Fold:
Amino acid sequence: MNYLDTVCAIIISRCGAYFKSLGINEPFENFPSLRRSASEPDDESLMLWAEIEKMIEEGGLPGADTEAWRYAVLIRGFRNDNVLRSLLDLCIADFSVPELGACISYHTGSPVTLQFAFSLEGIAHPSEKNILEKAEAASVFCYIDKKQYPLRYVPVNTDERVMTYLEGLDGLNPVLSGFTYLFDPSDARLHPPFISKQLIEKGASFIKKGGSVLQLSGRGGRRFIVRHIADKLKLPFLFMNLPDFLHETKKENGRATAALIREAHFLNAGVCFYGISEDYLLGSGSARNEASARRSLEMLTRMLFLPLADKHIPLVLCTDFSRIIADDEASGVSSMLLELPDDLTYDERLSLWKGFKKLYKLPVDPELFAIRYKLNASETARAVTAFTERGDTEKEDTDLLFSRLIIQLTGASVQPVGRVIYAGVLLDDVKIKPETRRKLDDMVISVRESHRILDEWSLRKNYPYGRSVSLLLSGPPGTGKTMTANAIAGELKMPLYQVNLSSIVDKYVGETEKNLEKAFTYAEKTNAVLFFDEADSLFGKRSEVKDSRDKYANNEISYLLQRIEAYDGVVILATNIKGNIDPAFLRRIRYVVNFENPDEKARRAIWEACLTKDIPTGEIDLDYLAAQFTDFTGSTIKSVFLNACSLASWKDEPLSMSHLIHAIRSELGKTSTINFTSDALGKYGYLAD
Structure:
């Protein structure tokens, strides 16, 4: 006979003796299963039970992982409380032999209750305080609906999870399993902490000394820190998303909380709640304010956090705010707040990339990546994981691949204030003057070497602001400014983040600055080249203040000045008229490149670059095209060429001068204010007839 069967037989016998003391001579007359269970234990089983009972009373545990050992673990917090022991035994017996509950109800009018457990121990009239204390303590092994009244007569029962635990089977309660995972340091693979070591030490020390509630505030690697705290303490931890947990608690009429307390007790584990955000506390609706957030936190603390802490379960809360969970002196609950920094320093980012490079043998330059990516610890880890999980990393440039992955991981596919462009051109594809090309090469070199001169040469401390590499491209429309911005991004192997000015500028006070901050923050995090086309609409000259709109417009410009100085990345501005840019901006721009309409040599190079090897062509007079149309910009030439190709393809003919002349005539007609004449086409004018 196993240990639990003996426990059931003894408590059933005690129930029979109690009923007989009330004058019920044959209490099990109509309950044959109870008669059989009460008579089953043999002398050997009873002697073993007595030995284990003595061991438990003396504070020891039976050897090995047996039913007796697990039973002793379950009641270790009762401190020899006989009422709770009797209640546990009643619940076990009622689950195993359902006739017991029916029998108790038959003789007393109620099934297994706290009052019946008290009565078994000779306490006929326990106080309400005593009843409430026992109900709280019993939640480790049973469920009592404490909302019902009177509590002493509320049915008490246990579930399969308690029984499977006692029988030696492990596994999370089904109520929790859908949104809970167990971290066990004994069998977990955990890489070293590359940063936040002091936070880990402080958190572990706080819990080791009996601290109740540890709060980790901020973003970036909070759960990773908790796992390392658990590893230092050699203590398993149950991790769960708070919104999911509360949803389940509501659906299960409160059973999830009882199940959580039970699991933590069974596993001797701590509990970590995450997903506790400011938005979650505020909820939805019109009453989104500081007071409502405070009330939500107070309610959670009273209904969930403190009850767990009262059970001496180490509790860690991962939040994105710094509202401190107050100590509760009455219950002895103590709390500590540890705050993660809003932004990692360069040295911290460098430690992360060096650590991950060594751990996964990444083909990256840690110094360069620490400069490029303003990511927190968890974002960096996710990017590295995504990179290592790809099987085709050798097919794509590492720098660009990381940029793509980080953009995907930070939710960047669609942004309200801009769009991400992966440039397919390089500076060699832009037909510009040699002098202009040299200036652009200087700018690219400056970006590539910034991490060396700022950090290896220790210049960062001399440049606390104004470290961005900024470029202003000015010149008439169609001269290649946008293509050049794309080509620079291509040379740097970085995505281009082109700001949508219609989404930036807002008529409401303060909204333009918020939208600009989104653009700068996004570009910083994703290592994108930040590109403002038609920049004079944002970076224009400040005006004399004549009304409130002038004042706020000037404030927006002042904000931009400060934000560019604080920006560490690459920013490109394009304008048709350099004179429209505020002089204060020009002083902060490191490189200024002026574009002009292409000369004849440049125009020929552009026409020639259009003629790729895959285009079927006849005889094309490039010298004529370059010399005849002096007002054509690069953009115009490409538009004309594309229209000519469309015509040739439709006619199923090789591209020839007749197709080009037709497209040129259409282009000239767009801006002409007088009737078109073939004289404008020179020697090929006859083709326009």
Q: What stands out?
A: The CA atoms of residues 195 and 209 lie 24 Å apart. The first strand starts at residue 180 and ends at 183. The longest helix spans residues 290-310. The chain has 32 helices and twelve strands.
